Task: structure prediction
Amino acid sequence: MPKNRSMNRMVTFIMVVFLFAFLGITGRFLYIQASGEVDNVSLSDWASDIRETEMVLPAERGKILDEGGKLLAYNRPTYRLFAIVDPEISANSSIPLHVVDPKETSEKIAPIIDMDPKEMEAIIIEGQKNKRFQVEFGKKGKDLSKHTMEQIKALELPGIDFMEDSLRYYANGMFASHIIGFTRPDEETEEITGVIGIENKYDKILKGEDGFIKYERDYYNKKLLKSEDVVKPPENGDDIYLTINQKIQILLEDVMTEVDEQYKPERMSVIVMNAKTGEILALSNRPSFNPNEITELENWYNDAISTPVEPGSTVKMFTWAAAIDSGNYNGNEKFKSGRYQVNPQIEPINDHNRGQGWGSITYDEGFRRSSNVAASRLMWEKMGSETFYEYLQRFHFDQPTGIDLPNEKEGQILYNWPSEKLRTAFGQGSTVTPLQQMKAATAIVNEGKMLRPYVVKKIVDPDTGKTIKEYEPEVVGEPIRKETAEKMIELLHDVIVGKGGTGAKFGLEEYSVIGKTGTAQIPNSNGGGYMTGRENYIFSFLGMAPKEDPQIMIHVSVKRPKLKPTDTGSDPVAYIFRNVMENSLRYLEIEPDKETDVSAVDSITFPNINNKSVQEAKQLLEKEGIKPVVVGNGKKVIATNKASDEIVFPNEKVILITDKPVMPDITGWSKADVFQLATLLNIELVDSGSGYATKQSIKKGETITKQKQLKVTFKAPDLE
Result:
């Protein structure tokens, strides 16, 4: 009996516990049902969050174009290879939808993407073992061209497919690379970011802003029928038009490549500027890079704006300008050239011909012969060091130019001791960048008004075509008077044409040139003194043309070229300057100002050949003295690389694409002409080397189709 009583108590206790538990849980459910909350968390909101998913709508990065609207950098579609390895996907299909034979698949695909077949096979097998749905193939399987994608698809291998990506593409390869820059993904976020150049400086403007779409989904990740979508459209990045002129830039790149191959200098920088506006028409450095093939960058710095150096004698034009403008100059006054020593405690200044000089000469002749002694005397005896320093500041040698490119560095004026002041007057000790000198020189060719250099012409909304911002020439100072500028132009012209002038090699046949040569010593890397030897200098020239109304200004610098016994340091500099200046002047339709027979270089206006037969088009062009390259055997012209009313010169290549195109022999063609041909034929170009075409993958006479890929090897010619 006691045992039964004890058991009854236990049962009663348990029932009471269960009853309270049941009432508690029921009450909790009733509360949750009534309030819709758990621990102050709304169940409806929580469920919505669980069901809701968000998909990014990527903004398209803005394009970079030249001043005429030709594409320099843009996003183009690329393809990412993947393989479906899960056999379950084929369960209800009459044909296999997954990779059935990893070995056969790998052996057929791997050679096309330059991958080891065994490595590809191992990736597929590992994916199968780990019961993955699909696998990718790393870097080799990414950024594939449309041509490569179509090649692989034509194999009709089961389980092989592609995802479309977007890749930043630079249309002309190694073209104004330090100006345009390049992009790369962030290591952590994989967000595409501009690294140098315009891509970096205007990264935010080019990038735009991603949009998104939010919708509700079910357990199987399918969109609910009554989903309330939230959509924020992407804001595409703005397009940036540069002041760069594509033709002049390509010309510059080609000429610099020739010099690079021939003289193998340690460094080269060239800037081509519109002397009247400050617009940069072309700019290039060596070493350079192809932004489409970035692996390891040899030269990050845009030397033309980021590497201050001792300028040498080009700075003398500003020493003379300061003396003239301050009223402390008499060009007919004579001085003893050769050697100049202020006092026994200061090292003497020697002229560049080992201190021999040219006897007693005038200061005008001293400028023509680039006398160091004349420059130091003008600073020390005529105008005084304080006045000269004031002019250095007026020419903005103590500050950056303000160009719209990243990482600009200004030079340093060393001006504490008498020896530093004396040497600064002829371009030693103190440092400047080539662009600082060009900015200062704009005052000489613009009646005393100094202009800010710039490289961005305008920013445009790609969706509306509306110009958001347009940049205009900007006067940033008036360091000298108009009369001083006029006198300096005469002195600079005398450097080219005067007896004993150091710039005779820089003259042109049809245009009068003004300018100043420079030969700057290079400090020893150990910090003591300067390098010796005939090659161990930075050879430079800062020149403008035509003389009476200078339109184009060019600065060329070549560091430590490899010279033959018969060469001089100015030879590679003059070769670049003459080629780029003369062709640029012609292209911009600037009339020659020298009385010579210029019939060989007269330009023509390209006629309208739209819808013309090949025979009619040839007759029209040959009448104007142009022999076009006819691509194909068709009877009708369907495309050409010249627009109606475009200015064309007899030495330019005119390409006519017929309605039955076949591959021409492109041996000896420039890279620019080959790029134009590939664009007109709508085929992919893969180039290697630089200079002029020597090998082509599509043989002469072979029929052209859009699936073709043209591989061309370029090589620079011997300048001799």
User: Anything to note?
Assistant: The longest strand covers residues 71-84.
